[in-house]
Amino acid sequence: MRVTLTMLIIDGHNLLHAIPKVDESTALISDLQLCRIVDNYLKRTGNKGEIIFDGIGPPDKTGFENMSRLEISFAGMKTDTDTIIEDKISASTAPKRLVIVSSDRRIRKAARTRKATSLKSEEFWKNLSKQLSIKRPKKEPGEKRYGLSESETEQWLDYFGFKQ
User: Fold this and answer.
1) 155 part of a folded domain
2) How far apart are CA 10 and CA 103, in angstroms?
3) Does residue 110 form part of some domain?
């Protein structure tokens, strides 16, 4: 059985501006904090994603490294995020696997045209928040499932005075 991963393409600044509309209790977060939150969400869901911000970003981009599930890019000075996302949608060989996150009508229309899934930023943030708020069960120790080794059993018997 082949598992198909979903690829999220996120309009970074659009999502940043949507967060206070959805969750007034969330303090303003930076683009770096947003990337870490989204990367954590992607780890939980098993998907991969790309977030694109307008402009050139901060001079020091080292904080954006080491995201295991999220690729981060900046549009630069000669183009904008919307154009880059539209190009990615057009160039995709599997647009039905794409989830485009933006409230921008132009991007949502481009997604619908190629039959990609489109989520408004507010809707995506609600889903992300809900997913991250779910407590994951702790893994039980292997000893619980497989029992103690023979030497460990002997140590405990000896410790409690039950010599064999």
Assistant:
1) no
2) 10
3) yes
Distances (CA, A) of 98 to 26, 114, 155: 28, 10, 56
Helices assigned H by DSSP within 50-120: 81-91, 105-113
Domain that holds residue 111: 7-139
Scanning the structure block, which residue is given the tokens 């599930």?
69
Q: How far apart are CA 8 and CA 97, in angstroms?
A: 9
Q: Would you state the pLDDT for residue 2?
A: 46
* pLDDT score of 160 more than 50: yes
Cα separation, 108 vs 86, whole angstroms = 9
pLDDT of residue 1: 43
pLDDT averaged over the chain? Answer: 89
Region 121-146: mean pLDDT is: 82
Asked if the structure places residue 119 within a domain, the reply is yes
Output the pLDDT for position 164: 57
- Say whether 25 sits in a helix, a strand or coil: coil
Supply the CATH number for residue 64's domain: 3.40.50
